[in-house]
Amino acid sequence: MFQLDDKFLTDVGMNELPEEQKKAFLQHIYDELELRVGTKLSDGMSDAQLEEFESIIDRKDEAVMAWLAQYAPNYYTDEAFGRIQQATGLDPNDPSLRAEYAATKWLEVNRPDYREVVASVLDEIKGEIVSNRDKLLGVDQPAA
């Protein structure tokens, strides 16, 4: 999908940031991406859908297990579950792993366009960073 890393910083012209600021900048971008994507994805969802998803992302194991039982009863054999498990290094029985998988699967079921939404919002943020690069880096700009 996408990575918020040194390559991302290079792509948006922010690789000149001091090392101690890079991590904080990337965390800020992640937080902003999460907020904007969440806002766009929630448009048009019912209150019930929003509550269900909130229970999953809040890692309420009872809600996660109920959702998985209904929509992905054999989740542990799904390739996506295996990829998430491998990426996180979590034990296959870890409730956090189940919740992460359930959140991803929930989006596939309820918002199949979520990957496009993430890509679109990320492109928006990249454009904002590029257009404000000098200001963000504290580079003096010529007087108008």
Give the overall shape: elongated
Low-confidence runs: none
What letter string, H or E per element, gives the SSE order? HHHHHHHH
Quaternary structure classification: single chain
Total discrete domains: 2
Largest sheet: none
Mean pLDDT: 91
Q: What is the first-to-last residue Cα distance?
A: 40 Å
Number of helices: 8
Strand content: under 5%
- Structural class estimated from helices and strands: mainly alpha
The share of residues in helices is: over 70%
Radius of gyration: 19 Å
Total beta-strand segments:
0
Describe, in short, the structure shown.
About 70% of the residues lie in helices and about 0% in strands. The chain has about 140 residues and is mainly alpha-helical.
